[in-house]
Amino acid sequence: MKIGDIDLGNMPLLLAPMEDVTDPAFRLMCKRFGVDMVYTEFVSADALIRSVSKTEQKLNISDDERPVAIQIYGRDVATMVEAAKIVEQAHPDVLDINFGCPVKRVAGKGAGAGMLQNIPLMLEITRAVVDAVKVPVTVKTRLGWDANSKIIVELAEQLQDCGIRALTIHGRTRAQMYTGEADWTLIGQVKQNPRMHIPIIGNGDVTTPERAKECFERYGVDGVMIGRASFGRPWIFKEVKHYLTTGEPLPPLSAAWRLDVLRQQVSDSINLLDERRGILHVRRHLAASPLFKGIPNFRDTRIAMLRAETRDELFRILTEIEERLL
Known about the structure:
Radius of gyration: 20 Å
Largest sheet: 8 strands, parallel
CATH class of the largest domain: Alpha Beta
């Protein structure tokens, strides 16, 4: 699969852009486990052109994580164009436009998935951004606003006509948020449309190596994007890569090995930020790790993990968990 001149190889895996998740430390960790392309957290076009420091920091990318995409969102043409030009100066490999975020503070203001209620403006923004920058422009969106407006098959052609170089589709409507099951049938219909010639990347509920392989084979997508399944499990990319390459499950990773990865994730987050902010950033993702699924009476331990305020405290909890697992 290629996005412009960027060759991601056969059956590439992509790390979904996720707010408060895909910071540089997490992107590099997922890269270590075999992900083919990573995305930054969402970048607000409005905040970027106002030079908000926290937003500008999201443009910090390194050569070690390439290829990397910076994703922006906004609700008017001029702001998105100005923001795109600023992003281009950070030299990402790809500039991605977010037309898929369903949360109220984004979609409720007409940005993100809110654009699914104003397709003419969505297309106008896309054309303007494509024309404003030299970096390849891609789009991430959803099936439609709700069950009565699943417009993605037609919309995909319209976005392609705007000049985008790839399209990522999350298999839910905005109304679904993250509930229910992702519907990949329409993603497959987009891919099978003979008029589509850009890469189609599927996203939604890919939580196992077997499901990733099924998505490639059954729906014909060019790439698979994994998001929430990487919470507390960055090694999922290692598992999926092995399965796609060999057709066999990766030999089980020991609990000790996986806990060491989580400890490294804590340390990386602290090194990137500081102890207080690093712990705040990482602890809820560790608490969601599937590694802890099935541990009896784990609720109190999870609460303690969510309340931990220091590295020593969090490491002590992880050591206690390790003793219970071994």
